[in-house]
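Lab notebook, design round three. We kept the backbone fixed and only want residue identities now. Task for the bench partner: fill in a sequence for the structure below.
Input structure tokens:
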């Protein structure tokens, strides 16, 4: 009887070297195992969710303690009377400005506010200037609070930090003043001032020409 040689062992070693499973080579035509069926199944690609778009900067505020840009003067007076940080004394705090269609309410403040100015154009509030009390609050605290709420300022220099869009300008000015401005009214007032300056220059030139 002939003795079996090492052929099966050598064959297994070659298959292993080539990265082929020996069982698959020795059992041709056999049904794949569940593990092989899973391995052979095509991968299913699940579309990933679209990343959320980052939120844009928040629009600068048009309001300070219930006083809103665009409100009429009577509503502003009512808001001043209700707020304990303002000391509104009545009609004597209201004055007319030399510019046409403009008036001003100037009030002293209490606690955090030292003084405040509310300017109206054609009966609507378009500028608020609030001088804060440095004994009660500091510039850094106000600045960090504004950045946390509205993002980084659009303008930053030693004189002011400014948040601005096409509708509103909000600024923190040194030493410690908050300013709110309606930019559409500002453009109108500026245009009127330029027209007045041009008319004055024409009058001046006419006067000089008549010498």
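Proposed sequence:
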């Amino acid at each position: 009887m002939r003795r079996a040689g090492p052929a099966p062992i050598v064959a297994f070693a070659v298959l292993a070297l080539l990265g082929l499973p020996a069982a698959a080579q020795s059992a041709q035509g056999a049904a794949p195992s569940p593990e092989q069926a899973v391995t052979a199944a095509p991968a299913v690609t699940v579309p990933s969710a679209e990343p959320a778009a980052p939120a844009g900067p928040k629009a600068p505020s048009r309001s300070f303690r219930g006083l809103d840009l665009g409100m009429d003067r009577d509503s502003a007076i009512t808001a001043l009377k209700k707020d304990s940080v303002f000391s509104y004394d009545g009609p004597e705090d209201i004055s007319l400005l030399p510019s046409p269609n403009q008036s001003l309410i100037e009030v002293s403040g209490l606690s955090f506010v030292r003084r405040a100015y509310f300017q109206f154009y054609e009966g609507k509030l378009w500028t608020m200037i609030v001088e804060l009390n440095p004994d009660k609050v500091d510039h850094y605290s106000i600045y960090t609070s504004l950045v946390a709420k509205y993002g980084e300022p659009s303008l930053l220099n030693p004189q002011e930090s400014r948040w601005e869009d096409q509708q509103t300008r909000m600024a923190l000015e040194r030493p410690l003043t908050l300013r709110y401005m309606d930019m559409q009214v500002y453009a109108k007032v500026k245009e009127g001032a330029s027209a007045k300056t041009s008319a004055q220059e024409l009058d001046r030139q006419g006067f000089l020409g008549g010498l």
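Keep this in mind before ordering anything: Residues 162 and 171 are 4 Å apart (CA to CA).
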